[in-house]
Fold these 2 entries.
Entry 1:
Amino acid sequence: MMLSCREVTRIVSQGLDRKLSFSERVRLRVHLGICDGCTNFRDQMAFLRAAMAKLADESPKP
Amino acid sequence: MNDFRSRVEGERPYLLRYASLQLRDTQAAEDAVQETLLAALAGEAGFGQRASLRTWLTGILKHKIIDAVRKASREAPAAGADEFEALFDERGHWIEMPAAWSDPDASLDQKRFFAALELCLSRLPAKTAQTFMMREHMGLETDEICKELAITATHCWVLLYRARMALRECLTKEWFGK
């Protein structure tokens, strides 16, 4: 069963918060292999996490 | 003693900024910082020389913030319907496909980018923002957040999803759209 883009956005987000199941990872990979929109989305989510990490330790450590 | 007091007081602006980002409510942030400073002055002996003063104070502040968030979440109404459904058609396909952001990594070196990010964070609904900040700014795991906020893991994931979707749209418009 092919994931829809809407489902992919939820799974990509949850993948940042919990370990995805094997089946979720496989179906995600299949979808991302053919969908540029969702691949861009996935990259944006990864960037957002990196940006938040930098915001969190942006303040100088004494 | 007076020296300790003035050093603690000197951290107030940093702590206030930290708390404001998390709580997005000036009064609640000031209360949390005030309680932190009082606790710190009362517990000077607990500080010793083991950590930096800022790290120690931030540790106390985190607990005060969680208390404040917990209190607010008991009072806040439940969130409404999912506005992000409108991004997809009835078969779940993007109506407008996300385009790649141009050179995002270069943004991480720019102060103005972080101003845009904070602007976008400030536009999130309060509970969504608090959950997201506990996850991405404090670095808590989902199960800790669930416990602190007394919500289910599923609800937590929904809130984090909404935060990320909203931030993606906001950053696309406010920063990457230029």
Note: Chain B has a mean pLDDT of 87.
Entry 2:
Amino acid sequence: MAIADTLNNLLFTSTLGLFKAYGVQRAEDPAGAKETASTLAAVVGFTGAAISGAVVLVVDSALLRSSTPIPETTERDWLAELSNQLLGRLKNRLLAYEVEVAALTPTVLGSVRIVPNGPRNQRQGITMAAEGKRATVWIDYQVKDAQRLDKLARGDAEVGREGDLVLF
Amino acid sequence: MSKRILVVDDSQSIRQHVRTTLAEGGFEILEAVDGLDALQTLTTRTDIDVVICDVNMPRLDGLGLLDELKAKGAMARLQVLMLTTEGQPAMMQRAKQAGAKGWIVKPFKPPLLLAAIKKIAGQ
């Protein structure tokens, strides 16, 4: 399995798992859907010795509102937190592949129509949908040390779980 | 008397979510927007029982806050639970060595957080 395939799989399962944790179940597989109509997007960068890049999360306002456990929060703050948690999930899954990255501060963009655009790493958006509402996510990355990504290229690691309590 | 809990997170959404989650436990909730804000509160107030703390925050991060509190001898009177997107064993080990009592990777399950805080707070 290529690095891009593993990264996209990890990103997709991370996105599905994150929304599921907030009560949004994937309801359909929108084959061919490449973009999400939205007025909000979040960009969160990451950097490490082997790989660096950014994850972009574009979410319909309706899906964003469906996912928040705190109705009184602002869409902007919740999207920043969601993108932060999405990258956290991705980071924790990368750890299982012995790839360590640090997250940067999320940036939320408003009043824009954002779609993935090639050709670097053949970036493609992955879209999930629930009840007609959509979220599109993609990763843009640059390999800095391919030798450190051997395990990622093989795509064969067990990953940890979020939400569990560890008492010391 | 209800236990006082300081929620330290730069996300208003998370602070509100934690506040709502712990409301049924009868706790008094205080908030800090980052580690430095929390350090100022914990330096001036000695009536806080539990700290729920994020790791990645501006100005002073959660592990830095633990180090500062440990250096000031404040960890002896505080119960600290880390609530973060981070899952790196090295970070967890560092928090444990600094005196934190537990670690939860976000997103958290509200019943689990409430149960954990009740246990840590001895309630």
Note: Chain B touches chain A at residues 11-14, 16-17, 20, 56, 58, 84-88, 92, 95-96, 100-110, 112-113, 116, 119 (CB under 8 Å).
